[in-house]
């Protein structure tokens, strides 16, 4: 059995990831700064962040919430952020009694308040449970930030849409988490530097 060399594949993947991120940030610099300032204003005014998404995006929600609650790069007070992807009893009871499409919607109704900020993540931009929750968040007076891929409904429902133009889900997710880290970093600097 011969050993296959994966070096060219690794190099191509890294180059593609860098290119997608570079292209995204080249076209979204102003929106990133605007979003960080909106997050800081939301938190200063006593609002909180509510994050929701499926699969890898659910994990990203938990990761981002942890960065705000604990700390990102500096020692500072905790900031209020809730990943709506964590409570399995809530998720499974809503999914069982109503519909999987309602798992984030009902949590937005229960926990969201005007002045809060929702971060909705869907690489397709069309996940029904994310779309329903984003629609409800807007109706309730929450500010909606959407992380998505190239297309989908989420960009139309978002006050600030962050659309990553790539056909590859992994490249979209990699860009989303870099975006989230930058937003955390900027928010800390705005509030505490």
TrEMBL record:
One of its GO terms (cellular component) is cytoplasm. The lineage of its organism: Bacteria, Pseudomonadati, Thermodesulfobacteriota, Desulfobacteria, Desulfobacterales. It catalyses: 2 D-sedoheptulose 7-phosphate = D-glycero-alpha-D-manno-heptose 7-phosphate + D-glycero-beta-D-manno-heptose 7-phosphate. Keywords: Carbohydrate metabolism, Cytoplasm, Isomerase, Metal-binding, Zinc. It is found in: Cytoplasm. It is an enzyme of class 5 (isomerase). The reaction produces a racemic mixture of D-glycero-alpha-D-manno-heptose 7-phosphate and D-glycero-beta-D-manno-heptose 7-phosphate. This is Phosphoheptose isomerase. Pathway: Carbohydrate biosynthesis; D-glycero-D-manno-heptose 7-phosphate biosynthesis; D-glycero-alpha-D-manno-heptose 7-phosphate and D-glycero-beta-D-manno-heptose 7-phosphate from sedoheptulose 7-phosphate: step 1/1. Coiled coil: none annotated. Binds 1 zinc ion per subunit. GO terms for biological process: carbohydrate metabolic process; D-glycero-D-manno-heptose 7-phosphate biosynthetic process. GO terms for molecular function: carbohydrate derivative binding; D-sedoheptulose 7-phosphate isomerase activity; zinc ion binding. Substrate binds at residues 54-56, 67, 96-97, 122-124, 127, 173. It comes from the Bacteria. Zn(2+) binds at residues 63, 67, 173, 181. Its cofactor is Zn(2+).
């Amino acid at each position: 059995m011969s050993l296959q060399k994966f070096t060219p594949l690794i190099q191509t993947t890294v180059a593609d990831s860098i290119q997608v991120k570079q292209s995204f940030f080249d076209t979204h610099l102003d929106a990133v700064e605007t979003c960080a300032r909106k997050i800081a204003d939301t938190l200063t005014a006593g609002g909180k962040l509510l994050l929701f998404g499926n699969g890898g995006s659910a994990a990203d929600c938990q990761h981002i919430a942890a960065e705000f609650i604990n700390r990102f790069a500096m020692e500072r007070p905790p900031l209020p952020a809730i990943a709506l992807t964590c409570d399995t009893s809530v998720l499974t009871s809503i999914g069982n009694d109503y519909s999987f499409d309602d798992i984030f919607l009902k949590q937005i109704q229960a926990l969201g308040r005007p002045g809060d900020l929702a971060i909705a993540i869907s690489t397709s931009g069309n996940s029904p449970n994310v779309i329903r929750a984003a629609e409800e968040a807007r109706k309730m007076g929450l500010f909606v930030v959407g992380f998505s891929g190239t297309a989908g409904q989420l960009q139309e429902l978002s006050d600030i849409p962050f659309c990553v133009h790539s056909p590859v889900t992994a490249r979209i997710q990699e860009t989303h988490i870099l975006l989230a880290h930058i937003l955390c970093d900027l928010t800390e600097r705005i509030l505490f530097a």
